Amino acid sequence: MEDSEKIMNTGQQSPKTAAKSKDQMLSGAAWRTGADMIGKILGVVYIIPWYAWMGRFGNEANSLFSMGYNIYALFLLISTVGIPAAIAREVARYNTLDDPNMAYRLVRQMLGVMLVLGIVASGLMFFLAGPLSVLVGGKDSADLIPVMKSLALAVLIFPSMSVIRGYFQGLNQVKAYAMSQLLEQIVRVIWMLAATFAIMKLGSHNWQNAVTQSTLAAFIGMLGSYAVLFYYLQKSGNLNKLINPGPVKSKINALEIFRSTLHTAIPFIVIGSAIQIFKIIDNSTFMNMMPWVTNYSHNELLVLMSYFSANTDKLTMVLLGVALTLGSVSDPLITEHYVQGNRRELATLVGYNFQLYVGFMLPAVIGMSLLTKPIYTISYQIPSGLQSSLFVFAILQTFLLGLYMIVYPPLTVMDHKRLAMRIFTLTLVIKLVLQVPMILIFHTYGPLLATTVSFLVGVFLFIRKLHELTHFSIKNTVRGIQGAILLTGFMAIVVIIVEIILGFIFGKSPGRIASVFIAAIAGGAGFYTYLWFAAKLGLLEKWFGPRGLSLRRKLHI
User: Fold this and answer.
1) How does pLDDT run across 222-260, given as a tens digit for each residue?
2) Which among 278, 334, 333 has a CA at the least distance from the CA of 308?
3) 177 vs 454: CA distance, rounded Å
């Protein structure tokens, strides 16, 4: 922090312009968003054969898979202790200070630390599989134990792997990060589908074993990701520098680096785990409290939970991936401007980030909501009224959850970690207070309602404080957001009209093949409408700079 303050006070290093920062953000966002979207699309596409091969146990299998993954995701966050995101910031900091060797030393030391943390976290998840299964799945949850144990293997290697990802992110070398992420998903999906087909179509037909092999795929995918990261380290020449770093200029010792990194990371791990914590609360309260007021069996509760959680999560992950990508790409740039004291550029970047988020997310959320029936039919089955309404609720809620992922990191970067923790704590308390009465009164809608109310409060408080700190232009930000809202309205009208016309052709209850045509034609028409109006109103250039002009030319608009 002493070096950081020195830069802020003396201004010895030339600050990057806001335009250059935007270009960096877009370049990183292009790689990360592209890889993340492909990975998330694979996660949506695989569910079609996977769910079908599970037969009549599709909903139960999806819920079992989801419950295991929610615990697994939380363990990933705990096992990394937020270190990768902190490493990205520290690497960016030391490169700003023209001391890359300090970054090499930091990464090398963290690899050893994270290997130990991975062993500890993996051991805990493996040996606590029984109690954790009862916690999230209720008393009749023995089938969840092997799922938990299979996921413990992935927890073993993820922490050290994520350190290398954080290193590339801090250098703004997003391609290596993105390619490792993409290959991880490809290998994972191949293993899942091959194992599920072998068990359900050629082997024992035991759906619980098929779910266990599907979760084991997370470990197999990470092995592929590790291979890609080492390839890029070797190709860039950074592998030898990480093994044998040169002398450093900074006077901060290794112990202080580790302490300051943990100090920065702990709020990230706690606040960033909000969505996963809330999902675990949903699982445990729903599965354990619904028997108080209903006569549903354990398997029937698994089916209901798939309606509001497991089935929707597979599709909303695509949308949340956009928010996570935008947040992770902008974080190092916000750090640089904060360290250098570039307050005007910082305010511009924060306001621009909101506009970019709404420009991406709003049309996606509204479009998926309008195409609920064909999308659900393609992925699972023709939805009932309950399934459709819960899906729309979850999709709309994703906009709020994604916004949360955008607004909390800047506060932790700008040394307001305690305030961020207080806001998170308030959000969690509201969730806990509302959860039980909401479930008892509204059943499957209860968890969604409790989450929505709590996140509304949390996001509002984060945005208010962020404005106080950066003074980003509300007027300019709202003006950009209004453009996205107007375009989304035009898009929605087109989607509704096209869907109605196609309804006369394919009937009221189209099957999977017909639903593919409906989603592709109506969704494609809406997407082109959005781009066309964005180009005509000059928003493509405003959001994407020169790339927006290039896109406009390619679309002949």
Assistant:
1) 999 999 998 888 887 777 777 777 666 665 555 565 666
2) 278
3) 33
CB count in 10 Å sphere of residue 206: 12
| CA dihedral over 117, 410, 313, 526, signed as positive or negative | negative
Q: In degrees rounded to 5, what are phi and psi of residue 273?
A: -90, 5
Residue 478 CB partners (closer than 8 Å, separation 6+): none
User: pTM for the whole thing?
Assistant: 0.79
Rounded CA-CA distance 222/321 in Å is: 18
Residue type, 329: V
Task: Report the C-alpha gap between 192 and 212 in whole angstroms.
Answer: 10
Q: Write out pLDDT tens, residues 215-232.
A: 999 999 999 999 999 888
- Write the pLDDT tens digit of every residue in 26-65: 555 566 666 666 777 787 788 899 999 998 899 999 999 9
Buried b (16+ CB within 10 A) or exposed e, 318-336: bbbbbbbbbbbbbbbbbbb
For residue 217, what are its two tokens? Answer: 């795929």
First to last CA, the chain: 49
Q: What is the pLDDT of residues 135-151, one digit of tens each?
A: 887 777 788 999 999 99
The C-alpha atoms of residue 443 and residue 447 are separated, in whole angstroms, by 8
Instruction: Pick the closest to residue 24 from 472, 356, 319 (CA basis).
Output: 356
Secondary structure (DSSP) of 527-548: HHHHHHHHHHTTHHHHHHTHHH
Buried b (16+ CB within 10 A) or exposed e, 507-529: eeebeeebbeebbebbbebbbeb
